[in-house]
Amino acid sequence: MAGGKIRLKDVAERAGVAVNTASTILNRRPNSWASKETEGRVFAAAKELGYRPNRAAVALRSGSFKAIGLLVADLENPYFTHFSQVFGNRIGEKGYDLVIENWQTDLEREKKLLEEVVYRNVDGVVAFVSDLDGHREFLERQSKLGFPIVVLAMPGAGEAFVDVVVPDFSTGLREAATRLHELGHRRFSFLAARSKGQRVGGRPSLFSKMIEGFGDSTCEVVNCGPNILEAREVGRKILESKDRPTALVALNDLTAIGVMRAAKDLGLSIPGDVSVVGIDGIPLGEYLQVSLSTVAQSHDEMVTQAIDFLLERIEGDGNKPPQQARFSTRFIERESIGAVAK
Predict the structure, then answer these.
(1) Are 47 and 126 members of one domain?
(2) What is the distance of C-alpha 66 from the center of its chain?
(3) Model pLDDT for residues 230-278, shown as the tens digit of each residue
(4) What is the mean pLDDT of the chain?
(5) Is 53 helix (H, G, I), strand (E, B) or coil?
(6) What is the pairing mode between strands 67-72 and 97-102?
(7) What is the CATH number for 231?
């Protein structure tokens, strides 16, 4: 045993029990007839020897790895970091470990990791994807094979083919547009952060239509890359323009923070010279030097629903038709917006 891998047999010998008894106790199976004293000896022996059960062997016996995969777009974006933390805490309460993969806003890496994570000794996967329809063939195949996957993305075309949890931005964006219009804003820009080759999604067009619906306002949609540096650079160009907007809305809070830095670079005040609104509702936004107004998603509720959908597939009826859950958003007004200077 010295210098080698600790085996279940070693734990059993140290505790003075049969291997089957040690296995039953360590795996907390309900059919254990062992006394509390015996259980105590087995757990003490396992701790003393540093025994760790082989996950693959446990899965072979139980039919479950007791682990969930989570595929996120960018762990440098506080939204995904916060989501991962909340998700990990909740799934841990259900008795599952968490395996996180990060596709780093790289669409080729996203495709590769999505197709690999299902083989990472996990019982199911929750995945943020850039384009639901773009992964339709793979997701449909996994669904037919019975592998549990829940997707967080905007709905694709046609009927649902996988369980989907999706934020509905219409309410929150309408509240933001209405409030900014009340404050006298008439010239808007929407900074649409996206990876190369990625569809921009519905948020920019939805907000633009709301602004144009006022009849006296305009909104220009400007594209930029997905990271904060590119948001800062593009934001600076927007704010240096002759007819700069009085209000700028960003696709996410991280992009909005880049814009706020660009305003600072140019000596502009927020909200005196320009109002800024983000989307997502990351906790960090409240604690910036100028707190960030945002269209907040229902993080906790979305996590809970994604886990419920997934565990229903894993532990319950895996043959149910695909399900979709929509969660409303809300506008949170903070210091980064104000009235247009007269």
Answers:
(1) no
(2) 20
(3) 999 999 999 999 899 999 999 999 999 999 999 999 999 999 999 999 9
(4) 90
(5) coil
(6) parallel
(7) 3.40.50.2300
Percent helix, percent strand, percent coil in the chain, to nearest 5: 45, 20, 40
Picking from 298, 324, 299, the residue whose alpha carbon sits closest to that of residue 309 is 324
Question: Measured between alpha carbons, how far is 80 from 67 in angstroms, rounded to an integer?
Answer: 19
Q: How many CB atoms lie within 10 A of CB 161?
A: 18
Tell me whether residue 60 is in a domain: no
Tell whether 333 is covered by a domain.
Answer: no
Q: Give the separation between CA 115 and CA 126, rounded to whole angstroms.
A: 13
Residue 341 one-letter amino acid: A
How many CA atoms within 13 Å lie on the side-chain side of 218? Answer: 6
Structure tokens at 337: 């917006």
How far apart, in whole angstroms, are the C-alpha atoms of residue 197 and residue 107?
8
Does pLDDT of 1 surpass 80? no
Nearest to 247 by CA among 212, 274, 224: 274
Which residue range is the domain that position 186 belongs to?
Answer: 170-297
Q: Looking at the chain, list the stretches that DSSP marks H as alpha helix, in order from N- to C-terminal side.
A: 8-15, 19-26, 36-49, 55-62, 78-93, 107-117, 136-145, 170-182, 203-212, 228-240, 253-265, 299-315
> What backbone phi and psi angles, to 5 degrees, belong to 21?
-65, -45
Instruction: Report the largest interatomic distance among the alpha carbons of the chain, rounded to a whole angstrom.
Output: 85
Pair (293, 179) in one structural domain: yes
Could you tell me if 235 and 222 are in contact, meaning their C-beta atoms sit under 8 angstroms apart?
Answer: no
CATH code, domain carrying 44:
1.10.260.40
Q: Are residues 193 and 130 in the same domain?
A: no
